[in-house]
């Protein structure tokens, strides 16, 4: 008789003998008899169908599968399905129980960003869900990711100047004890470029490529791009002209006839300031701009 035994299979990453593995673990049902487990490893194909990788029969409440870069590659979403049977009656099995899908590779959190041209920094977390192997020296116990951006126009074609700034062009994912969700992590700040142009909302792709690794597992691996949508915001303007008349960002008008160096505008939140130098010119009591410095 088929029955459900609440095996609750779960896939977690494991580093074994300096090789990256996945472990499918499950609950051992209460029984006085010797139980056997059949574990079916599968992954999602490009077409979205599940295809078998390997089938194990074991007496242990776990099964291991190596990330070898051939049968199981980075970027695969992996499942394990477990059934139980007794040695003397292998044709009488429990109902199969399947784990949740485990994505093996590098993940970005969040997977996409919606930001605005307001100068705010947004944190992008980068995780490796699989163990990083070491070749013996500490410098090798990491994955270096080279980062780049590509701005897209209509029909997803590259266009225009950079629309997104990154806090770094590369990050190191260093070895950490594996948890259920990651074996290495790094963080990156993403900011929209304020371009003083009314060019509408634009989309940028952030790309990451693993550098300096020769193992088959990491060779030619390309993580999924992160899509960043940048909201265009209206641009403010201020003016200082003739002798000089000032018009502020909010439209207030006044005159400034003094001579010397003055702060025309500045930001309390970031390192931005514009100084003007005024000297006497034209009629008595009037002054003109004769110099400007911007930071």
Automatic annotation (TrEMBL):
**Molecular function per GO:** signaling receptor binding
Describe the location of the VWFD domain by residue ranges: 236-295
Q: Which domain of life is it from?
A: Eukaryota
Annotated signal sequence range:
none
InterPro entries per record: Dev_Signal_Modulators, Ig_VWDE, VWF_type-D
Question: Which keywords does this chain's UniProt record carry?
Answer: Disulfide bond, Signal
Instruction: Give the record's GO CC terms.
Output: cell surface; extracellular region
Q: Which Pfam families match?
A: Ig_VWDE (PF25776), VWD (PF00094)
Task: Write out the coiled-coil annotation as residue ranges.
Answer: none
The entry's protein name is: VWDE protein
Q: Which organism is it from?
A: Crypturellus soui
């Amino acid at each position: 008789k088929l029955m459900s035994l609440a095996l609750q299979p779960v896939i977690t990453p494991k580093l074994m003998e300096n090789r990256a593995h996945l472990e499918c673990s499950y609950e051992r049902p209460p029984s006085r008899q010797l139980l056997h487990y059949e574990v079916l490893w599968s992954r999602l194909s490009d077409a979205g169908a599940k295809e078998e990788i390997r089938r194990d029969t074991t007496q242990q409440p776990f099964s291991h599968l190596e990330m070898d870069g051939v049968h199981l590659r980075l970027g695969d979403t992996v499942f394990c399905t477990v059934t139980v049977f007794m040695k003397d009656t292998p044709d009488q099995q429990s109902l199969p129980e399947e784990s949740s899908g485990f994505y093996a590779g590098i993940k970005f959190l969040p997977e996409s960003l919606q930001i605005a041209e307001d100068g705010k920094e947004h944190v992008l977390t980068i995780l490796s869900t699989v163990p990083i192997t070491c070749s013996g020296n500490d410098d090798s116990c990491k994955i270096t990711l080279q980062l780049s951006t590509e701005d897209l126009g209509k029909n997803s074609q590259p266009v225009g100047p950079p629309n997104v700034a990154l806090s770094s062009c590369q990050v190191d994912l260093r070895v950490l004890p594996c948890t259920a969700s990651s074996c290495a992590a790094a963080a990156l700040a993403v900011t929209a470029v304020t371009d003083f142009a009314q060019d509408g909302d634009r989309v940028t792709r952030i790309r990451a490529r693993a550098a300096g690794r020769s193992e088959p597992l990491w060779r030619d691996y390309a993580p999924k791009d992160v899509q960043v949508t940048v909201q265009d915001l209206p641009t403010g303007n201020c003016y200082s002209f003739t002798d000089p008349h000032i018009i502020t960002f909010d439209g207030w008008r006044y005159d400034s006839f003094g001579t010397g160096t003055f702060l025309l505008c500045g930001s309390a939140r970031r390192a931005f300031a514009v100084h003007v130098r005024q000297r006497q010119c034209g009629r008595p009591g009037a002054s003109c701009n004769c110099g400007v410095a911007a930071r």
